[in-house]
Amino acid sequence: MAILEGKKVIIIGDRDGVPGPAIAECVKTAGGEIVFSSTECFV
Amino acid sequence: MNSVIKGASYVLVHTPEMVVYNGTTQTTERVVNPESEYLKELRGHLRSYEDCVNYWPNQVYIGNAHPDELAQVEFPYFDKKKEGAERYGKYGEIMPEEEFLLLVQACDMFEVVKLDKNFVSAHKDAFAADPIITEDIVSKIEEGYELDEIKHFIENEHAEGLYHNNELVGCVRTAHDIDVNLSAHVMHENLMSKASSVLALLYAVRNAGINKEDVEYVIDCAEEACGDMNQRGGGNFAKAAAEVAGLVSATGSDSRGFCAGPTHALIEAAALVKSGAYKTVVVTAGGCTAKLGMNGKDHVKKGLPILEDCLGGFAVVISENDGVNPEINLDVLGRHTVGTGSAPQAVIGSLVTDPLDRVGWKVTDIDKFSPEMQNPDITKPAGAGDVPLANYKMIGALAVKRGDIDRKELPDFIQKHGLTGWAPTQGHIPSGVPYIGVAREDILAGNIKKAMIIGKGSLFLGRMTNLFDGVSFVIQANEGNDAAGTVSEEEVKGLIAKAMKEFAETLMAE
């Protein structure tokens, strides 16, 4: 998870996969800086 | 006493021209990249009406094949033909675009739909020959207008064109000079939703074997909004569609919740009937023009036909317990709450395992789960994967975690308790509800006892909240108690009064 330490992160989540806020929580824990987070619906 | 599912309908409308002119993937492309290769190639990938009818998932949707049969068809489906495919099925039909445009005109109460005279005369007989279309609806068809008048409305008055075989055959005019909520674009979108809902209502009443007068309440759960500049989503699609369908005893209202809308509406309908507020409630939804060809770019890029070429519609009739039809069990409701969170495990937990825990059931006590039933033929080439399968994997994983099944049993669990998706990607249409008609029959036949319907909604698309949403409920075999077999409050009062009278007479005699 150290690969995200100090990095800027863009998150595109999937409604029927892993949504943006859930990925964001993981990124924060790993020390990444979230610059954009969104969840998309493809159906 | 639980309410029951008396019947259901499922309809499709083949609308290839609306893919080109009204699907947002295409309209957006025309704005940002008008000379794109996609737009040039698009028309060559549109399916004929016959190909649309012969398509396996569409035949399952209207009831001419069981989802279990689809599961036996080799994937992908777009290059397979369903032998014996028909326009009409036990749940509804696949209506061709030309006939649907006449239905749309019949559903227009404000004279905004103008059809070409020659087009009307060429297709009116075929429209009238549809057994579900009533004489009352046919009588609303106007003679039509000169094509020059229609061109004038489009070129000078912002009307939206209506097309058939790539030719202009009519238009939808604006319903107000400056109100964007009544623009030709919005009127077009709303009228298509209304007309496909009307078609679904007509079939639902037929399939449930009830009279139109029996319907007391209609809930529309589509994803469109009708209103004007002072009340943008004022409604009411439900009553508007009920009027055309001839449901003279019904009032109604609209219920919204993105793709979760139908499941919310069905729970509301079941509660309305169980409470005694209304005896028969119909939940209905028409289709969405904006989503036509939504994944078209990927389909064209991969050499596939445009598979999102149909508007979808459905309606479910909920009635008082008749002692026969499957019940909606309101004691087992799944609910994604504000505090649930968005992690996939939390979402499925709130919708599937939490409600089961409340009544002490295992995951395996539910014979079939119906989450998002999107057709994977559409979603896989677009990179969205097999959505039903993804849901079943998560439900199965939670079942393993709870100890309801062993990890080795996971593949069998998915096959036994899951379904292969067959519904068009029309947002609310594939969300849980496509299975209700099949589940009702499978429960009546004794093949299954319990099914869970799961609806999920992407609330964040409305930019009011980042939250996700979802609800679920269980359909189960009827326990054999009907409303007629119980004693009403009035009867109890009458019995007490009679007993008191007899007691008083005894006292007086003494």
TrEMBL record, chain B:
It holds the Pfam family ACP_syn_III. Residues 346-509 form the DUF5940 domain. Residues 254-322 form the Beta-ketoacyl-[acyl-carrier-protein] synthase III N-terminal domain. SUPFAM superfamilies: Thiolase-like (SSF53901). This is Glycine reductase. It comes from Sellimonas caecigallum. The lineage of its organism: Bacteria, Bacillati, Bacillota, Clostridia, Lachnospirales.
